[in-house]
Amino acid sequence: MMQIFDISGPIKPKNENESLFPSLSFKERLMGFAFCSFLGYFIQILSFGSFLKAAAGAPNIFALTYSLGNILALFSTAFLIGFRKQFQNMVDKERKITSIIFFSSLVMIFLSVYLFKSKLLVVIFLLVEFCSYTWYVASYIPFARDCIKSCLRNIIKQ
């Protein structure tokens, strides 16, 4: 089994059951990450095939497939760092509000499609999901949030 290293040396889980799949090797974790990432982004790309229908007033299929792609892409990183660590990262002070907004928008999209049957709500929550997912991903990239803020300020000024 391969070991993961950081600057201080090999990384060992505090508890072997810290991961949802503790018996997976590093290679299997990479394969899980690659598969979920590929599938998630592939589904997101496929969802744009129904984008014209969404623009024409039928956003449900686009919203559901796009959301499923986001969930799989988010799920993929948990294979690398473990599901407990992924959850801890999502609720740390820098990402907590964004995570709550993201998951709330996912729930609201599904409720808007199946319960409320409101196309307007689907579109609104889809935009909220897109923005919150972008903000969440940007939190992992140094200075990305600052860059986004700067771009938005420049757009608003014009």
UniProtKB/TrEMBL annotation:
GO terms for cellular component: cytoplasm; endomembrane system; membrane
BP-aspect Gene Ontology terms: protein transport; vesicle-mediated transport
Broad class of the protein's primary localization: membrane
Ranges that cross the membrane: 30-49, 61-83, 95-116, 122-143
Pfam families linked: Got1 (PF04178)
Superkingdom as given in the UniProt entry: Eukaryota
This protein's record includes keyword Cell division: no
Keyword Plastid: no
Entry similarity comment: Belongs to the SFT2 family.
Protein name as it appears in the record: Vesicle transport protein
Species for this entry: Paramecium sonneborni
